[in-house]
Amino acid sequence: MSHRLVVVGAGYAGLQAAKRLARLLRRHDVTITLVNASDRFVERVRLHQLAAGQSWAGGGSSLRQQLNDPTVRLVVGRVTAIDAVSRTVAVAVDTVPASIGYDTLVYALGSGARLDDVPGASVHAYAVADFGQATRLRDRVSQVMSSGGTVAVVGAGLTGLETAAELAESCPTLRVRLLTGADDVGVGLMPRARRHLRYALDRLGVSVHTKAVVAEVREDGLDTVDGVAFAAHTVVWTTGFRVPELARAAGFATDEDGRMLVDATLRSISHSDVYAVGDAAAGLSVSGAPGRMSCQSALAMGRGVAGAIAARLAGGAGEEPPPVRIGYVFTNISLGRRDGVVQFTHADDSPRRFVLTGRAAAAFKETVVRSTVRKSRGEYWGGTTCSG
Ligand SMILES: Cc1cc2nc3c(=O)[nH]c(=O)nc-3n(C[C@H](O)[C@H](O)[C@H](O)COP(=O)(O)OP(=O)(O)OC[C@H]3O[C@@H](n4cnc5c(N)ncnc54)[C@H](O)[C@@H]3O)c2cc1C
After folding, report:
1. Same domain for 250 and 224
2. Is residue 367 domain-resident?
3. Is the pLDDT reported for residue 383 higher than 70?
4. For residue 144, which of 17, 158, 269, 326 sits 20 to 30 Å off, Cα-Cα?
5. Do 196 and 305 fall within a single domain?
6. Which run of H or of E encompasses 67?
């Protein structure tokens, strides 16, 4: 019987893994099945653009077209459970339950918004972590824009910075506030990069509120732990990502956030027939610390896991693949369509001195994001270049 390889999740990591597995194992007796909730490849790194009304952005292209490999079976359905004993994945296909057996499983379900962080956020806040949320925010923004509404973006990590800047540039009648619990924006970047972030946000009219830790989100704004109330028509929650509970529920070893614990070849430390990649995996970067949730790591992991699995299947039980290297090249922040900051980094993600700003940075990021999608289609298989 053929060896059944099942990849769940077709984002940057899962799609990359499925395509490369198909290529590396073309002459072997394997079947490859890719399961994804939607038949579109969603460019998550553009969802803040979609939210700001650039309706062509992020919605993605046909997954089948991106896959561009008829040997991979595509199942469009939502994974509802994984049974590690019977080695089956339960999938709701058009709400009809189905079961898919596996010999090797690649877990690549990505992440979503952390909307359960504070009271009221899951009810009143908007987010940009998935296509549905970004579309909902876009619709809300177009409603409040004409009346010159206020949008409060909570969280000044990369997603918060990009979302605040994009909304301010695309919707100039909006009043955009950016709130962070930290004492500055761009923590961890070189001073020149931080200065440019401040300058660009100021130029776009984004008011930045530091040391503002949110205690509760209300229908008409939010309150901080210091008792300061901010009125807002719309609150956007960008305080980080949370991974699905499916790995923990299946009994796979996970960290406290539910990211699957894996060895240097991205294999589960508790189940040798299971691998994890992308945001849902606690893969170790070259620094020895868990990798940053990013497209940059997701692509490297997707490529690396395929190599590791292929080496084991093709080489037999005694074949130990080399460790997968998750290194970084840059942190890449767009500030609207005409401005940005690129902080070049060492492989361990610590900042180098070199920083690119302004139009050159915006053009750099756009080139990188475009090349990422082309790479997902399989046109390029070279080094890791994704917006970090
Ligand atoms: C607005 C925004 C901007 C960003 N900008 C950048 C950036 O500039 N640079 C950068 O490096 N990173 C950026 N990121 C982060 C980056 O998008 C993620 O780190 C990356 O998408 C992770 O890839 P992944 O393959 O692990 O997960 P995803 O891309 O999230 O893919 C997961 C896939 O699994 C599917 N899925 C999930 N649950 C199920 C289920 N139960 N059943 C079936 N399918 C399921 C999803 O539909 C999706 O197709 C940004 C994210 C956002 C939201």
Report:
1. no
2. no
3. no
4. 158
5. no
6. helix 63-67
- Strands of the sheet containing 207-209, edge to edge, are 207-209, 175-179, 150-154, 234-237
Query: Ligand 1 — pocket residues by CB below 6 A?
Result: 9-14, 35-38, 42, 44-45, 47-48, 78-79, 108-111, 128-129, 158-159, 162, 244, 278-280, 293-296, 298, 332, 386-388
Question: Could you tell me the pLDDT band of residue 288, with boundaries at 50, 70 and 90?
Answer: confident
Whether residue 92 lies inside any domain: the answer is: yes
* 298-315 confidence digits (pLDDT tens): 999 999 999 999 999 987
Distance from the CA of 44 to the center of ligand 1, in angstroms? 5
Over residues 11-30, the pLDDT tens digits come to: 999 999 999 999 999 989 99
Residue 233 structure tokens = 């028509």
Q: Cα 88 to chain center, whole Å?
A: 26
One domain for residues 124 and 102: no
**In a shared domain, residues 123 and 223:** yes
pLDDT value at 347 more than 80: yes
Q: How many domains does the chain have?
A: 2
Name the residue with the closest Cα to ligand 1, atom 2. 45
Of 301, 310, 246, the closest CA to residue 277 belongs to 301
Is there a domain that residue 7 lies in? yes
CB 133 within 8 A of CB 113: yes
Query: Residues 83-116, buried b or exposed e (16+ Cβ, 10 A)?
Result: ebeebbbbbeeeeeeeebebebbbbbbbbebbbe
248 phi and psi, to 5 degrees?
-65, -45
Closest ligand 1 atom to the C-alpha of 38? 47
What pTM did the predictor assign?
0.94
Residues 287 and 177 in one domain: no
Residue where one domain finishes, among candidates 213, 240, 267: 240
The reply to whether 349 falls in a domain is: no
User: Which residues span the domain enclosing 166?
Assistant: 114-240
Same domain as 304, residue 236: no
Q: What is the pLDDT of residue 385?
A: 28
CA–centroid distance, 297 to ligand 1, in Å, is 11
Separation CA 71–CA 31 (nearest Å): 8
When the pLDDT of each residue in the chain is averaged and rounded to a whole number, the result is: 92
